[in-house]
Specification:
A hairpin with a 2-residue loop joins strand 3 and strand 4. By secondary structure, the protein is an alpha/beta fold. A nine-stranded mixed sheet has the order 3-4-2-1-5-6-7-11-8, with helices on both faces. The protein has a two-stranded antiparallel ribbon with strand order 9-10. It has a single domain, classed as Stationary-phase Survival Protein Sure Homolog, Chain: A. The longest helix has 26 residues. The chain is globular and about 55 Å long. It has seven helices and eleven strands.
Length: 316
């Protein structure tokens, strides 16, 4: 992302103090059907921001605690929310999608679709079928059990779900709960509520600033990581920061030859000191890390120019 776009997005998210402590918006009447005005128009000056139509997905499965907490609090804030998420746990599937010729889909309850595939499969099914003809205002992926910072984000199904939405031109945020360490199950589940409370406040910020325009710059999503604060995980974060993805990969694999043509795989957690201004540093300081992401792998202009110079004159 170009530095100027990052700075403008940082200003959008953080110019009002105390975003990390924002409580959920007051509940508004909840419509059972999608709002026809989703693609719409200008709201009257001074009118309250309209509720959003939100496709909610994750990689932990459609009935996991994080996605159910998100559904409950986003709905209570007045948004029109539909879950379209994997039938089973799909952690670590990254951006994988559309790898089969058929897809089993269940509709176990109103406003819930369970897709026997990856988060990416769930999102593209939701956009193509559940929201056919009228794209949602926002795709939310999470909240995930455990962090998706540094190299973990590259392989995250939670982030992959948001990337799939961005590829189809729909604004998206990935949301995760956890510090940069093995998660404590009870504290992490408890921390999902302050995570989603923060998310509700952030969405309220975006829609109040959007007016009649897009929630986020075109092609840009957010990877949000909320820390676990306090022994029980119930405390809010101690602030928030717009960050970059820490370049480290903290999972170190080891392969042992068993002698029968297979190799035993073990993985150890070996974090390095966090980069200043990165997502790991923010979460480690009990702050919410908000990292802008995009669906492409283009480098910045300086790196592009350097590689162009390196390869100048190259011929087949």
């Amino acid at each position: 992302m170009r530095p100027r776009r990052l700075l403008s997005l940082a200003a959008l998210l953080l110019c009002t103090p105390g975003l990390a402590g924002t409580a959920p918006a007051a509940a508004a009447p909840h419509s059972a059907a999608p709002h026809p005005a989703a693609q719409s128009p200008v709201r009257p000056q001074g009118a309250a921001p309209r509720p959003l139509r939100i496709l909610l997905t994750n990689d932990d499965g459609y009935d996991a605690p994080g996605i159910r907490t998100a559904f409950q609090l986003l709905t209570a804030a007045g948004h029109d929310v539909t879950i379209v998420a994997p039938l089973t746990n799909q952690s670590g599937t990254g951006t994988k999608m559309l790898s089969g010729t058929s897809l089993a889909v269940r509709h176990p309850e109103p406003r819930v679709w369970a897709v026997d595939g990856t988060p990416g499969d769930s999102v593209v099914f939701g956009l193509s079928e559940v929201y056919a003809g009228a794209a949602p205002d926002l795709v939310v992926s999470g909240t995930n059990f455990g962090p998706n910072v540094a190299g973990l984000a590259n392989h995250s199904g939670t982030v992959g779900g948001a990337i799939a939405a961005l590829e189809y031109g729909v604004p998206a945020v990935a949301v995760s709960t956890g510090g940069f360490a093995a998660p404590d199950p009870v504290a992490t589940v408890n921390a999902m509520r302050p995570t989603v409370e923060f998310l509700v406040g952030l969405i309220d910020r975006l829609r109040s600033r959007a007016r009649s325009g897009p929630l986020l710059p075109e092609g840009v999503g957010l990877n949000i990581n909320h820390p676990v604060v306090g022994a029980d995980g119930k405390a809010p974060a101690e602030g928030s920061a717009v960050t970059f993805q820490d370049p480290q990969q903290a999972l170190v694999p080891d392969f042992t030859d068993t002698g029968d043509g297979t190799w035993k795989v073990t993985v150890r957690f070996a974090p390095r000191p966090p980069a200043k201004g990165g997502d790991v540093a923010a979460v480690s300081a009990s702050k919410v890390a908000i990292s802008p992401v995009s669906a492409d792998w283009n480098t910045g202009p300086a790196d592009f120019a350097e590689v162009s110079a390196l390869l100048a004159g190259l011929r087949p």
